[in-house]
Amino acid sequence: MATKTSRVKQEQLRKRRNNLLRRHNDFWRLYSIRSWLTMEMPNGRIYTYHSHPDVPVPTMEETSTRSRPAVHKTPADYVSGNSTKLTIPKAPTSSIPRRQKAVWDSFSRYMQYIRA
């Protein structure tokens, strides 16, 4: 069924699940967006969220007959074409300005002499 996961991964999954449920609730509270969410966890447990428990989840037929077209998303919609390429930015170049005073030049030569 499900593979064994570390405690860290289990905790991360628990936090992400709770955050997702909280975000769905925020959509209703802040923007009056009705939402229905069903998740099946790797262990088989099902979590559901209904912003309106009295309103049933719209069927596929109901979503296709609405005046506004439904937007259906799949995991493929969230995979970018560049996700496999890692772009490493160039290291910043820095230029050190020349010393303005001869004292610092002689001090620098002295420090080099001591290190040698």
UniProtKB/TrEMBL annotation:
GO BP: any one term: positive regulation of transcription by RNA polymerase II
Residues covered by region (Disordered): 57-95
UniProt biased composition (Polar residues): 80-95
Domain of life where this protein originates: Eukaryota
GO molecular function: DNA binding; protein dimerization activity
The protein's name: MADS-box domain-containing protein
Species this chain originates from: Penicillium bovifimosum
Organism ancestry: Eukaryota, Fungi, Dikarya, Ascomycota, Pezizomycotina
